[in-house]
Known about the structure:
Elements: E1 5-8, E2 17-24, E3 30-36, H1 39-56, E4 62-69, H2 73-87, E5 116-121, H3 125-129, E6 138-142, H4 152-165, E7 172-176, H5 187-192, E8 197-200, H6 206-223, E9 230-235, H7 238-242, H8 244-248, E10 256-259, H9 261-268, H10 280-293, E11 296-299, H11 308-321, E12 325-328, H12 333-341, H13 345-363, E13 369-371, E14 374-376, H14 378-393
Helix pairs in contact: 1-2, 2-4, 11-12, 13-14
Amino acid sequence: MSRHAEAGRKGREARSDCHVTIEPTESGGINLEVTSRVDYLYADAIRSLVLDALDRLEVTDARVTVEDQGAVPFVMLARVETAVRRAWPGRPFPECLPETDPAGTVPTARDRWRRSRLYLPGNEPKYLLNAHIHGADAVILDLEDAVPPAERDAALLLVRNALHALSFGDCERMVRVNRLPQGLDDIPPLVRAHVQVLLLPKCEDPEQVRAAAALVETTRAEAGVKAQVYLMPILESPRGMLQALEIAEASPLTAALTWGLEDYLREIGGRRTPDGEETLWARSQVVNAARAAGVQPIDTVYADIENLDGLREHTRRARDFGFEGKGCIHPRQVPVVNEVFIPQPAEVAEACAIIEAFEAARREGRSVVAIGRRMIDAPVVNRAGRIVELARRAGLLPDEGGTR
Length: 404
C-alpha cells in the first residue's frame, strides 16, 4: 500500500541537504516541482538527477517536490530513494547509487594505526562532506546513538551513498551499525559501498561477532568486493565485559576492541569520578582481552568537548594503560588525541635500535637478536616497526627516502 512520504531536511538550517516529498498517484506520470537556492545555476541538473533517480527506482506515477538547500548529488539521490521506500513500504527497490570514487575503494590494513576516530552523525550531510579535513585517523559514520530511531533508514542510505561518492582522504572509513540483530540489515549495503571497518555496538556475545563476520564474507563474495572488511566490537555492558576475550577472539575479521563508558556506567549503576576508579576493571578487561586476542585496544570517548586539558590527561592515562587510540566526538578533540598517541622521543630511539639490531642479525644470518641483555622476538620487532612508521608520519623521523 502506498502513502505520502518525505525525507531530508528543509529550511535554511538544512545546509547541504534537501527535502523530498512524494505522493503516489494512480496515473499521470511524474509531476515534479523543484525549488533551490541555486536554481539559477542548477535547476535543470537537479530536475534531470531526480527524474533519473525515479526512473531507476521504477517510479512512474507520483507528485514529487524537492526543496534544495545545496545538496550534492549523492545526498539528493539518497533522499529521493528514502522517500520512495517510505512511500511504498515493503516493495523491493534497487539501490540508487552515485558514481563511485575509485579512491574510496582502497583497502585498509588490519593493524593500521587508529589513534583518533571521529564520530559523525550519519543523518547530517554537512558533516560528511568535509569529514576528512580534521586530521583523524578514521571517521565513524554513526547509524546508532547519534541518529533518531525514525531517521535510521534515511541515515543508512545517506552513509551508503557517501561511502560510494567520497574518498575521505587518508581517513579509514568506519560505520557504527545499529545494535544486532537489527544491525545485520545495515551490513550488506555498507560492504557493497566499500566500508573498511564496521563497529558493532553493545556487543554481548561472540555469536554476534560471528554472525556479522559471516554476513560480511557472504556479501563480499556475492558483490565481488575484494578489499577485506574488518570488525570492531564495542563492549558497553557487564555481560559484554565478562565475555571480552571470547568476543575479541570470535572472528579473524576483528581488528580492534573498544568500549562505551556512558552505557557501561549506567548498566552497573556507577558514578563517574575524577580518577576513573569506577572503570578500572572494565578498562583492564578491554586491554587484556584485546592483547590476548591479538587485536588493538581502543579507548572510549571523552564527553566534555570544552575541556581539552582534561581530554589530554584522560588520553595520556589511556595510552599508559595500554590503549592504542581513542574515540573523539568533536573535531577539536582530534589534534589532542593524535598528539598524545605520537611516540615519545625515547620510544622512537628504542624502536630504531630494535629495528637496526634485527636487520643486522638478519644480514649476519643470526637467529637470535638481542639488545644488551634483552632478547628481541617478532612481536617486539613488529611493534618497533609500527612506532617507527608513526614517527615518520608525524615528521619525527625522515621517511625511507631520506626526506622529512
